[in-house]
Each structure stands twice: as C-alpha cells, then as structure tokens.
Amino acid sequence: MSSKSLLESILSALSNEVRAEVLKLISMEGPLSFTTIMEKLDMNPKTDAGKFGYHLRMLNEAELIKSDESSGKYYLTLLGQDVANFIYGVEDAVRRKKGDMLVRTSSLTIEPFERKKIVDALMREASVPRKLAESISKEAEDRLKKLQVRYLTAALIREFINTILLEKGLEEYRHALTRLGQPVYDVTTTIKNTAFRDYPSPEKVHMLAGDAVLEEYTLLKVLPRTIADAHLCGAIHLNNANYWSLRPADIHHDLRPFLDGALPVDGTGLAMPTHSRPKSFTGALYTVNSLLRSTSAMVSNSQSIGFFNIFLAPFIKNMDDDAVESAIRDFLYDMNGCLMVSGNADIAINAELEVPSFLEDVKAVGPDGKSDKYSDYYDESLRLLRLFLDVMSEPDGSSKPLTRPTLFLKVRKRSLVTDKASACFESAYKLAERWGSVYFINQMLPWQHSNVFYNSDLSRIDSEWKDWESGTMRVGSLDNITLNLPRIAYDANGDDDRMMERLRELLELSREALSIKKQILEERMHIDRLLPLYREEYEGNNYFRLNDSPGIISYVGLPEAVKYHTGLDLSDSNDALKLATRIVDTMNGYTRQMLPSTRLLTSSITFEPSAQRLTQLDIASGYLKSKDAQIYTEHSNLPLTTAIPLRKRLNIEGLFHQKTKGGHLFDIRLAEPFPTYEVLSNNTKRIMETAAIGLFTFTRDYSYCARCRNVTYGLHAKCPKCGYDGNRIVLYTKTYGRIKPSKIWSTNEREFALNTQRFTL
Ligand SMILES: [Zn+2]
Q: How many Å lie between the centroid of ligand 1 and the Cα of residue 709?
C-alpha cells in the first residue's frame, strides 16, 4: 500500500459513492461513530459491517478521516474537509449541467428545486385553480433553468412567479402572493439612523423593522383597496397603520377590579406577579404600575387612569403626608423609567377636585375591605391630589422634570365655589408655572356631560354614551382616521355641493375602515387571543368594552381648505367661519347619525403628526403649486403660526370644541417672562367662565443642559450657565399638545416647536 502515492489513494477512495457520502456526512454532522454512520446511510450493521469497514479503511489510508481514540468516533482531517468541499463543488457542477436547481428557502435550508411546491403555494395562498397553477409553475421552471441563476432563493422564485402572473394579466392572484418586507438597504439605514432620531436601543430597531411589515400587511390584506388607496394617495391618513390590525389606540382603565383582587393585572395571572388585594398605598401603586406595564403592549398610544385620586384615596387613610409623598415619588420614577425602556405607550391620569355625585354612594374598594362609600374619602382624595401635584413639580435627581403622566384636572362647579380644593388649585397652578405639565378640563360646560375623560393622545370620551361607566370606563379609541380637508377643497374647485359630497364620501370610507378595525379587534381578542386582559370576564362583560369603544374621525387643514374655497381667512371673515363650521358640523352630524348602534366621534386631533405627509402628497400630485407651501394646520382650527389675539382664538376655537367630541385642545403657549401662578389662576377661571373651551393647558418652554444639570426657561441651543452647546442640551416644549424633548422631535415637530405663536397674558 505504501508504494501508492497519497493522490492515488485519494482518487481511489473517491471512486465509490458510499465513501463520498461518508465524507459529506461527517463534514455536515461532525464526528460520528461507526454504527451511527452505518445507520445514517441506511446500511445494516449486521450484514454490511464487513463491507463498510473496508470503506472506512480506504478513507483512513487516504488520510481523509481519522478515528478519535478516546471516543472511537471518526472525524475529518483538514485534507478530508478540503476533499469534501471538492465533492460539493463537483455535485453543483453536475446539477447545473443537468439543469437541476438548488433553492435557499426562507427557513434557511437549501433544497433541490421542486415544481410541486410552486403549485401548492399558488393554490394555498392565492386559490389559483390547479390546472393554471401547473402551467404557471412549468413556465417558471423552464425560464429559471434558462437563466441559470447562481443564487436562487425562495423570495426570488416568488418575484419571478409574480412577474409571470402580471404578464398574464392575473393581477388579483399576484396581489395575494405579495411578500412583505423591507429591502436590505432600508434595514441597514434603520440600524444606522435610529440613534439620531430617538432614544436608541436595539429593541427600537426591531420595532421599526416590524412596523414596516405590519403597515404593509394592513394596507394590502386587512383593508379594502379603496381605503388603502385613499391613505396612500393622501385623501385620508390612517393613524397607527403599523398597529392597525393588532390593537386599539388607547384605553381608559377602571382600577377597582385590580384593587379588590377580582382581576389579575395581566388578565390571566400567569405573566406578572400580582397582589390579590393590595393592603397598603405602596401595594396599590405597585398594582397600578403593573397594570400599566402589562397593558402598554396592548395599546398604540396611551392608557388613562380615571378617578385616580378618588379610587386610591382609601389607601392613604392613616398615612402622614411625608409617607404618601415618598410612595408617589417612587411610583412616578418607576413609571417614567419603565415606559421609557419599553417604548411607546403614554400614560394619562384624570384627577378630580371633588367626588362627582354619581360616585358618592358607590362602594369604596380599600385595603381593609370595609364597606364604606367614596364620599367618605373626599378629604383624602384632595390630600392625595395635592401631594401628587407637589411631587410632579419637583425636578428629578439630575434637575430635569418628569414628563409622565399627562395630568388632566377636572374642574367641576363645586370645586370652584367652595374653598376645599383651593390648596389643590394652588399646587396645580404652581406645577403649570414650573413645567406646564397640567391640563385643565372644564367639566362645567353642558356638553361635557356628567363625566368626561381625556387620554394622553388627547382623545376625548364622555358619558353621553349610555352612562358614566359604560361610556367612559374600560373603553378606548379604536383608532383615528384623518381627513385631508384641503384636498377636498381642491377637488371641489369652488363648488359647495361637490365639497360636501366629497366630504361625505370620505366620512363613509372612514366609517367602513373603523368598523373593520372593530371586527379585527374582536378577532384578536377572542380567536387569536392576543389581548388577554381585554377578553377577561368582569361583571358580565369583557374587561375591554369593545362595543362601547368609539372610532375617531379627525381632520387637518381646516383654515387652508376654507381659504382655498372662499379666498378668505378664517380669523377675520364671517363667511369663512360659516364654511368652516359647516364642514365640522357635517362631520359631527354624520357621526351622530350612526347612533345608537355605532359610536363614532369627530376630533380635531391626529394621533400622529400627519399634516406634513398630506401636504407633501398634495404638492407631489400637483394640487399645490408651490414646493415650499406651508404645512397644513393640525391640532387647531386656526393657523398656529399667524399672530391672532388670544381672546379671539379662544372665541373661535370655543365654537369648535363642542363639535369635536373625539378630541381637542387649546394649547396656550406662553412667552417668557412667564406669568406667575396667581396670573395663571385668574386666567384659568376667566377662560372657564367666558369661553367654551373643553380642554386647555399652559405651555412653558425650557432647556436642559445634561452637562451642568441645569434648567433654563426658554429655548436655548447653548447653555446660559456653562456655555455648553453640544448634543446633551435638550429643549422641552409641547409639540402637538404633548411635552416632548427635542431628542425625539420629527422635522415638523421641530417646526411646530419653534414657529408657533406664543402669547403674553
Ligand atoms: Zn450647562
């Protein structure tokens, strides 16, 4: 044997297919024992052992394999690995010669091309009749073979089939076979750019990549093409398109089932630790935060806690102020920290300055299970609110403010005429003066009904629907469709009737989209079981009252639409105002027509800034001539960049607040020097008494320098204290109604932050 050269030994070792298979097997699976190799090659260990031993000896003598003395297993030498690779290459060449193809599949395996798989996919995914599927797959196979593609993937075959379907005019089938996903380039761009536009984290990149797929899924699969096209061409804007087919926009929680142990915070009790019944204020606050954390994955925008200080009042009964404050501080830090990490769901707290009459005799849930009523805890509820406001006013350990929750303060008649709530009011005005982080609800306006809640996304809900419980608790906005009003005006070309007709068409389209959303949520809750807490039974209903939850139809560009149609400015023409009122009345009238079966609400609030997209689409489609046309007005009925006196704005916006019961806000953006809290107090009372504004807030601009940990009022790119002007300066103001640091402003949020009108009181 030794007379034979090594090359000769290798060539003779390769002259048999069994030996080639052994090399390939060990190269794929690593060291293997004698019997395992026999089994894997379907040889019989009893009858074939002799013959097989001979094969192994040949490979061993050619120095391609060796056996490991301790384990007895055979492994490949370096030479053996080279030769195995050579065999793969020869096999590929043979396949190419024969015209066979290998396919890289989406499950990351390599398989020989099988025409039958195409037939199956065409029939399964697009219901193509068998005969047609057969002929398409044959054509695909022939053409792919001719092309001799080197790196054939399942995705590429799909593209190829799609092209054949298009060539044959079979567009409907092609539509059903669409593959969702992003170009490699886009994913790379997301990874490279996320840190520059948001709080960076790998999770954020993952979310953005997922968003792209699910948004396409919604537009291609979930919604009829008329609706998807209306969104894509910019007649409407579908808010939360990325999550449209998965979850509602927001929810208003009822804390009572969690405080009395009737429901675990995650619905099932399987995912999170839970107090069966919290025995202390700290325990109760822990329960609230657990609820918010587990539900943050189940909403797109925000969660709200209603009657916060009333439902928690029984838990502070025997505590002193210091202990209550300390518990609130921990609660707020925990809330702000956790939600920052987990992402996108904002928190609202709706607080009361008195116990509303409908709650007075309701049995209170407290730590000791005694059966007293909420009216017994009036004083505690005010004390809790005052301490909460005071803690919200404090900066954190590095001198910056807490930006969560969005705090809504409900002002009812009694709290204004008695002195009981005056300490709370004072704390609220001080908080408004310091950070602007309080929102005032005028609950005295008759159209606010007995109860109203606002959420962090500025949507609004009231008890006109059924009663205060079914109307406002355990419900949420399904989602929001925004109408591009200027587009309607361009299409109408000055014709009133055409304008109203087009408006009604889009309202009808929006209603259809929102009713589809409701059906989808029903399916996600009950069939797909993606929203466990929502489907949990409580008091004869699911926790989330889907049928009581409203769909929202909103608008952008009211003043621009009116200006185009009449040539007049909304701020100084009665005719313009008349048309604007008619537009919003038509929207409002349409939603009210759907009562009592369907709950729809009109809103002047978009959930995500959409005016920029819609303006740009109008420019791209030639509706707007100027490339640098101003972005349409959003979140307001009057243009925000034009100087209009505050009183006039209050009067005009007041006309619209009562017509936009799905959401509105009057944001009183104030210039420096900022008024004192006493001035804010006087103005708040005057606005409540003289204007029909449902919700308003005072906004103060401030800048934070993370280098010297200092806050300066006003927007300063350079720290006035230490002179630093790098990227650790963060500007704060409300953009589209919510406090947002400049780190996460989009381009049009930056425009909004810097260029909207500031008032002086
Ligand atoms: Zn500084």
A: 6
Ligand 1 centroid distance, CA of 351 (Å): 35
Q: CA nearest 393: which of 351, 339, 433?
A: 433
Q: Percent of the chain scored above 70 by pLDDT?
A: 98
Task: Please tell me the distance from the alpha carbon of residue 376 to that of residue 30, in angstroms, as a whole number.
Answer: 75
CA atoms within 13 A on the CB side of 671: 8
Residues with CB under 5 A from ligand 1 (ion): 705, 707-708, 719, 721-722, 724
**Tokens matching residue 400:** 């910056």
Ligand 1 centroid to 79 CA: how many Å?
A: 65
Give tens-digit pLDDT for 712-753: 999 999 999 999 999 899 999 999 999 989 988 888 899 999
Distances (CA, A) of 686 to 421, 451, 654, 681, 683: 18, 22, 14, 9, 5
Ligand 1 centre distance from Cα of residue 201 (Å): 26
Q: What is the location of CATH 1.10.10.10 in the chain?
A: 6-97
Mean pLDDT across 284-288: 96
Q: From ligand 1's centre to the CA of 714, what distance in Å?
A: 14
Matching CATH number, 6-97, of 3.40.50.970, 1.10.10.10, 1.20.1250.20, 1.20.1440.60: 1.10.10.10
At 710 the three-state DSSP class reads: strand
What is the C-alpha separation between 408 and 594, in angstroms, rounded? 29
Please provide residue 409's backbone torsions phi and psi, each rounded to the nearest 5 degrees.
-110, 120
Q: How far is the CA of 129 from the centre of ligand 1 (A)?
A: 70
Measured in angstroms, how far is the CA atom of residue 711 from the centroid of ligand 1? Answer: 8
